Fold this protein.
Amino acid sequence: MHEKKIFFTVATSGMNGNEVTVLQVARSAGNAGNFSFPLDTSLSSVTVYITGSSLDFTLYSPTGVSQSDSMTDGSLGSIQTVGNLKKIKLKSNSQTGEWSININSTSSYTMRVIGQSSVNILSYFVEISQGGHSDSWGQIFTRPSTGQNAILFLSVTGDETFTVTEVLLVDASGSNVVNGSVKSVGGRDYLVSLNRIPEGLFGLQLEGLLNKSSSRFQRQSSNHRKGSRITVKPPTQNALTPGVPFSFNFTVSTYGTAGNHTIRARTSNGFSVSVPSSLNVESGRSAQGTATLTAPSITESGTDFTLTIEAEAPGSTDLNYATLRLTVSSASGRFSGLYSFSMCLSLFGLFLSLFM
């Protein structure tokens, strides 16, 4: 889906499924930074990774002890350098508390602090459905709208008891934040209301206290996300019979760049799908296209698959998509479509949220 994310490709030998991200930033050339981060009592095997050339740094512990990049084996940790990657493995006897690192560089760089902990976060954007005795919500399989308000579902893993103090969206540089309004929805789950989605790449940051130790903790999403000024909206329910072409309309709208938007579509299992190559969309308006989808006649009833429709702005300046989950039904000639604004939480949604 051409989703642009920042990934930190580093060797993490010894790490396993309990790896968590405490902090990550990406800065442009010549943009120095001083970054602080708390290390809590649930963390172990904390490592700082810095990528970039022509840089130097100084690490500071909670007690004020410092170690520069020239000290490969200091009181705070050991430093390994491979190419433009520096790996700082902190010593286990001095981890808990508020740390900071000062980085000076004449080129762009990234920095990531990771460790091992049972306390981690799972999050995805949702849409609220109001009705009945209580509100319900479901994951949206699309980029959120840049500059617009949004609601995010957040779940905290682990067996530690905790208190949430703040949830933020933080841009990739770590310089700008959007504060969220947090509402508990039971157990370790929360809904976070945000008054806008930032421009460019951003990540989620949770701050809180571990109740047993009163230790401040912080977790960030493991990758960065990006909003869009484009909206792609397919229908919510349609009919599909194996071997019979089915056509349906979808709409593309934008409050960004006007002009011909490139349209693409694909299915998860290779079923035939056709869409117009482009749609002319004016800013603040929408345009409609027609998609034709065919499941082979030998398709078994109950077969699940997904359909993704993408719209890309002129000059590749923006992109968004919508993903439907479909189930073929030969008995009734009907399928149930869970498009990007479905109100049904599913294991599919939980799985997909880890990669979006």
